[in-house]
């Protein structure tokens, strides 16, 4: 990939859980280009937030062990930087937003104070310049009344407005990469759609690559260019969103899609939940972790880990990890 901005190779995270040591992220790899939005999708507990925390350097030993062959941001390999250099990178070249902005906003400081502090720290602007830049960022995330918002305190804003402030803060330094962990999950659908549109527009105009973490396939359909499907800490399918929705090849992806209610027929449709339960990460068996819920599973699946393979030949844009994938003859490219 020529203008790849962020590249992760074989990232793993092992945590101490109540049931013992667990590999909660298992050798995941992906790349991101400037301006694109890559979805990281999967059911609750599959390892999405831990992946984000590991990429931000927020999983600390001895509770957690992070290993990776490479986490490359521009020309820097983050696995080889010392803590001081990593701190400089965090917040300026790679930033993150969370589901609940209130946890990241200090109730005693105004929005203007939050934003201008970040801008002064990372962009070296003086007070007046930073205040002007803060107003500009608020306008860019769709806040028409930016001067008033600057004076407001976090608790005076709605959830959607707080998330816009977080996006403004995270994007103020024009980071190369933004990791957004369920940023719209707490919002109503209309606000969610607006926030996703603003995030996407800002990402494109700044050339920022966005890793959008969500459990919601509707969010993927609306906002993402490509998506990674995660199950029990592993990536099981990667594809452009159109191909993923049009012709999923991994049985787990197909199961997720079948579990989404559709209203296009005008009649209520019966949705098909995936049978069985997600195994605990400390009690994973050999082979494919989906085997206990998969109708196609055989002895090979239960003993041999399926590797990621290309579905679309040398194009290499659609990959899956499955011994007995679904047909993909109606590939929707
Ligand atoms: N601090 C922690 N200590 C031990 N286990 C954890 C911790 N945080 C998360 N886990 C476990 O790691 C797995 C992945 O969690 P997480 O990344 O939060 O999932 P997701 O974001 O996909 O819902 C889960 O099984 C969860 O219980
Ligand atoms: S590898 Fe086997 S068990 Fe796993 S998803 Fe594919 S067919 Fe099912
Ligand atoms: Mg999470």
Layout of strands and helices, then pairs:
Elements: E1 4-17, E2 20-33, E3 37-41, H1 48-55, E4 64-67, E5 70-73, E6 76-77, H2 83-89, E7 94-97, H3 111-123, H4 127-140, H5 146-151, H6 159-171, E8 177-181, H7 189-206, E9 209-214, H8 217-223, E10 226-231, E11 234-240, H9 241-246, H10 251-258, H11 299-303, E12 309-310, E13 319-320
Parallel strand pairs: 3-9, 3-10, 7-8, 8-9
Antiparallel strand pairs: 1-2, 1-4, 1-5, 5-6, 10-11, 11-13, 12-13
Helix pairs in contact: 3-4, 4-6, 6-7
This protein binds adenosine-5'-diphosphate, iron/sulfur cluster and magnesium ion (MG).
Iron/sulfur cluster binds at residues 251-252, 288, 290-291, 294, 296-297, 301, 306, 322-324.
């Amino acid at each position: 990939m020529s203008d790849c901005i962020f590249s992760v190779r074989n990232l793993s995270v092992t945590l101490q859980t109540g049931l013992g040591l667990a590999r909660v992220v298992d050798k995941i790899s992906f790349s991101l280009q400037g301006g694109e939005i890559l979805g990281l999708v999967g059911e609750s507990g599959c390892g999405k937030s831990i992946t984000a925390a590991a990429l931000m350097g927020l999983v600390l030993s001895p509770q957690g062990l992070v290993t990776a062959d490479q986490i490359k941001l521009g020309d820097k390999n983050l696995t080889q930087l010392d803590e001081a250099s990593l701190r400089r990178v965090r917040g300026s070249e790679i930033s993150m937003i969370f589901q609940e902005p209130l946890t990241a906003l200090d109730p005693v400081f105004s929005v203007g104070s939050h934003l201008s502090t970040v801008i002064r720290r990372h962009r070296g602007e003086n007070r007046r310049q930073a205040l002007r830049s803060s107003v500009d960022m608020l306008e860019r995330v769709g806040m028409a009344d930016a001067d008033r918002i600057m004076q407001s305190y976090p608790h005076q804003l709605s959830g959607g407005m707080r998330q816009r402030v977080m996006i403004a803060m995270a994007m103020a330094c024009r980071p190369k990469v933004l990791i957004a962990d369920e940023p719209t999950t707490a919002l109503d659908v209309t606000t969610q759609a607006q926030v996703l549109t603003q995030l996407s527009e800002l990402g494109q105009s700044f050339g920022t690559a966005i890793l959008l973490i969500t459990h919601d396939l509707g969010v993927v359909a609306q906002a993402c260019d490509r998506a990674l499907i995660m199950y029990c800490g592993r990536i099981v399918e990667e594809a452009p969103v159109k191909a993923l929705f049009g012709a999923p090849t991994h049985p787990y992806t197909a199961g997720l899609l079948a579990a989404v209610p559709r209203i296009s027929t005008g009649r209520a449709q019966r949705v098909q939940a995936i049978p069985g339960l997600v195994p605990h990460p400390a009690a994973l068996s050999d082979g494919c972790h989906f085997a206990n819920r998969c109708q196609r599973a055989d002895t090979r699946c239960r003993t041999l880990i399926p590797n990621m393979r290309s579905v679309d030949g040398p194009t290499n844009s659609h990959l899956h990890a499955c011994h007995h994938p679904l047909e993909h003859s109606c590939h929707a490219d």
